[in-house]
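Lecture notes, unit on binding sites. The following record was shown on slide 14. It pairs a sequence with magnesium ion.
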Amino acid sequence: MGHAKRNKLVFTVKDRCRVCYTCLRECPVKAIKIINGQAEVISERCIGCGNCVSVCSQKAKVYFDSVERVENMLQSEPEIVACIAPSFPAEFSEIPDHKFLVGMIKKLGFHRVFEVAFGADLVAKEYSKLIESAGEKTYISSDCPAIVFYIEHYYPELIKNLAPIASPMVAICRVIRKKYGENTKVVFIGPCIAKKAESDEIDEALTFIELRTLFERNAITVENADPSEFDSPHPGKGAIFPVSRGLLQSVNIKDDIIKGEILVASGRINFREAIKEFDNKEIEAKHLELLCCDGCIMGPGMSQCGKPYHRRVRISNYVKSRLEVLDNEKWSEEMNEYNDIVLSQTFNPADRRQEKPAYDMVEKILLSMGKNDTKDHLNCGACGYDTCIEHAEAILLGHAENEMCLPFAIEKLHKSVNALNISNENLANAKLALKQSEKLASMGQLSAGIAHELNNPLGVITLYSNILKDEISADSPVQKDLQLIVEQSERCKKIVGGLLNFARKNQVKLVETDFEKFVHHSIESVIIPGNVQVEIKSSLVDKMVMIDTDQMMQVLTNLEKNAVEAMPAGGNLTIEITGDKQSVEIAINDSGTGIPKENMEKLFEPFFTTKEPGKGTGLGLPLVYGIVKMHKGQINVVSNTLPENGPVGTTFKIVLPRYN
Ligand code: ADP
Ligand code: MG
């Protein structure tokens, strides 16, 4: 078979391809590779069946365009004829009579128009002889070029079983050349893409779609064409050939089908299965009648899709009407006239099978797609391959990509969505924390200024009030007043000290400390009412951490006091210590009242308190915050006040780096 046009038979228009893998799924030989998310036809693997062209909703798969070549031939060739495939009644259902179609083709410039069906008559006779004389040998019909390509490429050892008979197209071509001379240019018109590369004996092959393009370009319609009859020789029953079993129907070997000696398989799944089973010696048949499409009426060169039964009816009606007016005597005469035409055909192996990659390599690829086990082999077919293993093999051959696996891609997408959610959350938290720390920083500056200015006069007040107190006799009436001044100025000093701590003006003196012991120690210096249960849990392995013990003690006692104060009716104070190599974390949880949402933002502001005057200063948490920051640590609060949202209470969590 001539393969001159094979490497440009079917190809992808990259801009149109939306990578849905439908073409790959429908390709019976997996002649499509997906690289960088683009589908590309592997010409040497392609059998030209045109399934991919038919199924691509984006029209991204196109085939070798013969329109211009034929136009040029029509202008330059002195003797150019057309032969039209017998499936034409299924295509041109809008044309009321075949004579109009013939007239339209002639108007294009073709000198004569023949029916390939007469070639089918000759070929059918040949098949009948072959099957009768085959003996034990099983033949596979060779009239479908895609089937022939398939066997040449993927079952070269079955070439001996291909019926060594020319196709009806080649047969009619030989008839035409005998009748009208060797130099006659012959253009085949039919539903098939593979025909374009079937044989060098044909000069060009148009699909019906391309014929319609020619009609359109030349403004040829039923109305402006002169009706004309097909040129002779006219066919007999060969015209039924485009429907599956057609060829056999035309040689009257129906009985063999009933006996099971003739096996008919059509369509991209069935023909492969039939060949595979035949190759495995699982079927015994006298003859395999195989068609790549569901009969030629479903060929990819037809312009409308669907309606296979309507198309069959159109063919049978046409054949019936033609047989009614057939001059049987003339037909027999012509069959005899071309009896001497050699209808033999040879086929050449062109092995395109690829060695299967070693299974350990395949397994590695499967693992990389998260398929750790056979139960992970969903074999869903979304990637275009029937099984996960076939997909993995194709990846190894450089024909496919991991991302084609839908479950893998979905999983990957889920992971990135989750990661995105987490980083979004982190970002929002960071933004909030930044806002908070900016606010606290400016408050810190202000309070540091105030504290600094107050410190000196306060020192003077304390000093002089103490001197006065010492100088005055113990029973003096002002002694009590002076005592009050001393006490209150001491209190003021404490507040100012607290402000300075918050403003981070102090230094930290880090000492390596057993954190677990330290926490236990902290709880001892807090007065715990009888109705509060304390529990300290620790999972620390390395207990040592660098902290300023005096300051950190203030942090813990402040938080513990707050927790106790939040549980006036009693409850649980739970302290949990965890850690890793870099840091330790302490969570102080209480089952107290919780903190209302509106207070959350104000917690660390100096003087924010909800406690009654004299009880709270609102300086505890600002102090805690300042000290934690001085330790380069982090502090956050989670709190719940509504029982319907879970347990009510508050958790303060502090993360401290082990070493600063
Ligand atoms: P003070 O204890 O003097 O009020 P803090 O700065 O220690 O000042 O606390 C500020 C406010 O934060 C408290 O008045 C209280 O409203 C709230 N608060 C702190 N810790 C808790 C807690 N564990 N449970 C409920 N509210 C708390
Ligand atoms: Mg407090």
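Take-home: The domain at 422-504 is CATH 1.10.287.130 (Helix Hairpins).
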